[in-house]
Fold these 2 entries.
Entry 1:
Amino acid sequence: MYTYAAVMNAHVVVEFLLVWMGLSLTVPGELLALGYQTGGLLLSDRDPKPRRCQYSKISGMLQAKCAELNLNEFPKNLRTDIEILDFSVNRMRDLNNKTLAPYTSLSFLYLMDNFIQTIEEGAFSQLTNIQVINLNTNGIGEFPNSIFSLPSLKRFYLAANRIRDESVRPTGLAENSNLELLDLSGNQLTSLPHLGILPRLKYLNMSGNSIRQLKPDDVAIFCSLESLDITNNPLILDDCSCHALSEWIAIRNIKLYPDKLQCTTDRKRCTYRPDNPITSNDTVKLFDSCKYVLKTSEELAKARSTWILVGSSVSVFLVVLFISFYYIHRRNRRKKILKKNNEKGQLAVNHANTELLNDKNRQDDA
């Protein structure tokens, strides 16, 4: 049987490579290939459990493994320069604004299988380098909107918690988010989350919720979506929205789980003409709004890069110009000094010749 450490190390390495390459394991039961479920790890660990956090290097990153230590808070002596923290299967109950503040170098944070129920708004605010946060299998009831302010976060796991529709609130911060994967499977949601525009979201896992209705508008707001998992939901697909959603998913090449929607309404009843699509203008407008946000942010990023390049070029030019002037100044100064020394030497020679001539004249007069 695989040990906890071996499976977790494999998971971290794979997740690191996926984030770095911009890929994802987007299949139902997303990480089952690594013995991973929405709740935690399926394994038997025969090795003696460590009594304190263990440090190691994974892909050149410093990791602290503090799993299964029956801890309700981070150890006081935990190194603050860690980049990977595995604190899964412990007894932590909340994340306040000070809990993670010292660990500003974190890129991967694993807090699965704890007892976390509350997350303060600024709990993650210091984690500017964080790329992956896993909060699966806790008791969280409020969706932490603060994640949208994290500039580097790409993958956020919040499966098997207690998230309800009323706890998910749209926020303008979402438009600036770089989030690519959101896992909300196994919660208590009755619809897709209305978080606002998430322009870079590619993978959305909503399996195992209580979703009954699903419309194209719910999906169109995620204009980069590539994969949508809605398995194990009590969907009622008995109106034209089912055909509209099927058409939208097909047009946008979104990978759907399950593979096909079972629409009970006749497709012909949902349009005036057989060749006329049933996607509404409102759906297209939502999609275009998301695309506009994405395009604008990309243009701003490009402009920022251009200005950085221009600024760097100007700085290099000024440095080269300064060095050139300094070199010319040093050369001219050297020439002046050399010329002055030559003049002094010539005067000395002339003075010596004059003295010799005077001595000779004195000898001749004598």
Entry 2:
Amino acid sequence: MVINLSPAEQKRNGPLFDLSIALGVLKSGEFLKDDISTDAGFIGYLSLDGTILAMQENCN
């Protein structure tokens, strides 16, 4: 499986894409049976053990 995050010149910081990539992999491998709406958004990230965590707002 190839996951393309283009443009390649743009540096990616943080876990922002992890959850959506994981959901895409699970859906393409038919581990998720339910349909995912094309206008759905997922906000969160994966910890190193695979736990889904909420994004924390920076309150500075």
